[in-house]
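Technical annex, item 7. During the second reporting period the consortium partners agreed on a shared format for inverse folding records so that results from different sites could be compared directly. Each record opens with the tokenized structure and is followed by the designed sequence. A conforming record, contributed by the partner at site C, is shown below for reference.
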């Protein structure tokens, strides 16, 4: 095997690795976006629940040691 062929094989392997990693990053980005929307919905739901009870939202309450 000559040096050029060895380099071509390594480049092909690296290209495949980069493509695979790009797919992983794209899937992770989609999952992070989905989870961020879900957390936002949970925060809104909790704020609505606290408002319906007429209590001070937990985020606005002073810690017990104050």
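Designed sequence (site C submission):
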């Amino acid at each position: 095997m000559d040096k050029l062929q060895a380099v071509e094989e390594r480049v092909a392997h690296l290209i495949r690795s980069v493509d695979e990693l790009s797919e992983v990053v794209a899937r992770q980005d989609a999952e992070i976006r989905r989870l961020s929307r879900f957390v936002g919905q949970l925060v809104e739901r909790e704020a609505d629940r606290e408002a319906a009870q007429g209590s001070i939202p937990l985020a606005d309450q002073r810690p017990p040691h104050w």
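The radius of gyration is 25 Å. The chain is about 75% helix and 0% strand. All partners now use this format for quarterly exchanges.
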